[in-house]
């Protein structure tokens, strides 16, 4: 819809104001209001009226997904790429979105399909140089460098229809039918709607790359995530070699799936079994480390929780956390002080998850408690011990999601002892943190723990 003259639009959130002001009244951002340009009334699009049909008697034949050629990716997508489907891939700058999609486009072109890679950020020479470095120079792979969605739609309407269209990125492409700069809410909405509708009519699979904001969410209107069929998020630390591809939404398969990639010189390669990938060269003879069977989505893998407790000479001891919520550490330390009578208020506590991972799994609680106790007592845990469980404010250990999945994975990797929350399926489990301390450290554990 065209905006009337004398109106100001926020470039960040799309809010409208009848007058200019320094701060947007909606998102509170500064210096983002710009006057909407005057434009002529848009012409009406006359289309035939659609009517419903019976799915059992009529309609189009069901479409079948085709394989991507990247091992592991078809499984998390629910079988592969679906013709006519749309996908949104988000991630921080430099995390590997363009690298992964160029590899995917090369695999599809190598199978005989026409693939078009559209870039609004790179020139054709830059795309070719990157494809050559990745070994993705395939004769069937075509590239288009443009910032106009009309050029993309004209390409779709002429010649052989592509089986896969990659647009990198949706925030750099603009449409003449909408006002505002590329990347604004109105432009992102218009570009996405036109591309999704055109590709759906042509049975062309569409992959859109989306930028992310400072808090990690995909920039632009939330409508963008509702419009597409699949939303993927590529995460990781650029200082480490691994990348995590999370499935946040999938209409053709399970969501909350996870795929682990490793960044190499020739692109991203799938880690076939990430069960012990994040452990690295772990030395179990050192104190302050605990092995936790974590669960991210539906995939269990072993991670190392590290802790360091040192005597503090500061008025307020330090509490440093890397890889999980700092508030959880504060709660767990308070429980340890209350229930086990540990003088942790006199110690600096540093904790992290090995490998640069960031997790929100409540099952990490028991591993954090064990690692802090190990560092405080300077006693290593048993070499093959593995833990998981949530610790409440009373020091009780509660079950967490995926108990059976974690247990099967721990037994497959021959970990022992397996310290899990006590329950009907695990009567020999751990009931509270006092019992955990006695099992791990015996008489060398904290003296006179409070009864839990």
Overview of this structure, please?
The protein is an alpha/beta fold. The chain has 3 domains: about 1-35; about 75-270, Rossmann fold; about 275-445, Ribosomal Protein S5, domain 2 (2-Layer Sandwich), CATH 3.30.230.10. Helix content is about 25%, strand content about 20%. It has 10 helices and 20 strands. The chain has a 9-stranded mixed β-sheet with strand order 6-5-7-8-4-9-10-11-12, with helices on both faces. It has a 4-stranded mixed β-sheet with strand order 13-14-16-15. Helix 4 (about 150-155) runs parallel beside helix 5 (about 185-200) and helix 8 crosses helix 10. Mean pLDDT is about 90; it is low at about 1-5 and about 40-45.
Summary of the model, kept short:
This protein is of the alpha/beta class and 452 residues long. It has helices at residues 73-77, 97-110, 124-134, 149-156, 185-202, 223-227, 326-340, 364-377, 403-412, 433-441; strands at residues 8-10, 16-17, 33-35, 86-91, 115-119, 141-145, 164-168, 205-210, 230-235, 242-250, 258-264, 267-270, 289-296, 299-311, 319-322, 347-353, 386-387, 390-391, 397-398, 418-419.
């Amino acid at each position: 819809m065209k905006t009337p003259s004398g109106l100001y639009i926020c470039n960040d959130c799309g809010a409208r104001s009848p007058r200019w002001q320094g701060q947007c009244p909606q998102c509170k951002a500064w210096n983002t209001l710009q006057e909407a340009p005057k434009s002529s009334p848009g012409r009406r699009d006359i289309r035939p009226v659609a009517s419903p049909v019976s799915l059992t008697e009529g309609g189009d034949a069901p479409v079948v997904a085709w394989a991507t050629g990247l091992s592991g990716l078809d499984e998390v997508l629910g079988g592969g790429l679906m013709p006519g489907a749309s996908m949104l891939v988000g991630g921080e700058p430099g995390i590997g979105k363009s690298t992964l999609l160029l590899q995917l486009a090369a695999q599809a072109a190598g199978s005989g399909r026409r693939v078009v890679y559209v870039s609004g950020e790179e020139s054709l020479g830059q795309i070719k140089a990157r494809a050559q470095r990745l070994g993705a120079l395939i004769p069937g792979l075509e590239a288009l460098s443009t910032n106009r969605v009309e050029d993309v739609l004209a390409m779709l309407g002429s010649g052989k229809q592509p089986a896969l269209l990659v647009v990198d990125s949706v925030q750099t492409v603009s449409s003449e039918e909408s006002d505002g700069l590329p990347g604004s809410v109105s432009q992102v909405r218009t570009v996405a709607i036109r591309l999704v509708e055109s590709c759906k009519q042509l049975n062309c699979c569409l992959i859109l790359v989306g930028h992310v904001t400072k808090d990690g969410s995909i920039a632009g209107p939330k409508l963008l995530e509702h419009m597409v069929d699949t939303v993927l998020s590529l995460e990781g630390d650029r200082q480490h070699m691994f990348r995590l591809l999370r499935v946040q939404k999938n209409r053709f398969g399970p969501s909350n799936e996870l795929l682990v990639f490793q960044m190499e010189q020739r692109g991203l390669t799938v880690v076939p079994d990430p069960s012990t990938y994040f452990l690295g060269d772990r030395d179990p003879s050192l104190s302050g480390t605990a092995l936790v069977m974590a669960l991210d989505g539906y995939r269990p893998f072993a991670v190392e929780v590290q802790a360091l407790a040192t005597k503090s000479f500061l008025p307020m001891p330090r509490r440093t956390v890397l890889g999980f919520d700092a508030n959880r550490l504060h709660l767990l330390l308070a429980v340890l002080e209350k229930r086990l009578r540990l003088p942790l208020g006199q110690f600096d506590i540093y904790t992290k998850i090995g490998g640069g991972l960031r997790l929100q799994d409540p099952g990490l609680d028991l591993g954090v408690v064990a690692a802090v106790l190990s560092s405080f007592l300077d006693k290593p845990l048993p070499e093959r011990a593995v833990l998981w469980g949530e610790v409440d404010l009373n020091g009780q250990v509660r079950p967490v999601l995926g108990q059976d999945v974690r247990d099967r994975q721990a037994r497959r990797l021959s970990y022992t002892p397996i310290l899990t929350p006590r329950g009907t399926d695990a009567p020999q489990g751990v009931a509270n943190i006092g019992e955990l301390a006695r099992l791990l450290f015996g008489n060398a554990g904290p003296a006179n723990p409070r009864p839990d």
